[in-house]
């Protein structure tokens, strides 16, 4: 797995974890608010989502918000290629070539 893929996976995991924590704290606040409203309302219909559904929704939103391409990284590499300053260490290149053949 390339280091860029690992970084993207780490960013996605970090975002997912953060959004999960936010969703949980928001869910607790919403539950308290809903409980207060239920006390004042005698016959209101309600729907409650499980923690798993809330976590899944938060993860889905995190994925939607994450960019597919890191534009700043792409433009930086393009600039290095056009300047002739982009280089890949021989060991890294050889390892990638062997990994793709397997």
Give structural attributes:
mainly alpha, 2 domains, 4 helices, 102 residues
Mean pLDDT: 79
| Secondary structure: helix percent | over 70%
Q: Give the CA-CA distance, first to last residue.
A: 13 Å
Strand percentage: under 5%
Strand-pairing-aware structural class: mainly alpha
Low-confidence stretches: none
| Helix and strand sequence | HHHH
Structural domain tally: 2
What's the assembly state of these chains? single chain
Tell me, what's the shape? elongated
Count of strand segments: 0
Mind telling me the C-alpha Rg?
A: 23 Å
Number of helices: 4
Major beta sheet, specifics? none
Verbal overview:
This protein is mainly alpha-helical and 102 residues long. It has two domains: 1-66; 71-102, no CATH class. It is 76% helix and 0% strand. α1 (3-40) crosses α2 (51-65). It is elongated and about 70 Å long.
Short structural summary:
With 102 residues, this protein is mainly alpha-helical. It has 4 helices and no strands. It has 2 domains: 1-66; 71-102, no CATH class.
Give the helix/strand layout.
Blueprint: H1 3-40, H2 51-65, H3 71-83, H4 90-101
Helix pairs in contact: 1-2
């Amino acid at each position: 797995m390339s280091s860029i893929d690992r970084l993207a996976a780490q960013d996605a995991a970090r975002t997912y974890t953060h959004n999960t924590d936010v969703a949980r704290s928001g869910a607790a606040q919403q539950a308290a608010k809903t409980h207060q409203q239920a006390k004042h309302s005698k016959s209101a219909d309600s729907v409650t989502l499980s923690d798993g559904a809330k976590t899944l929704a938060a993860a889905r939103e995190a994925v939607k918000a994450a960019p597919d391409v890191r534009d700043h990284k792409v433009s930086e590499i393009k600039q290095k290629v056009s300047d002739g300053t982009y280089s890949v260490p021989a060991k890294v290149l050889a390892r990638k070539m062997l990994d793709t053949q397997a």
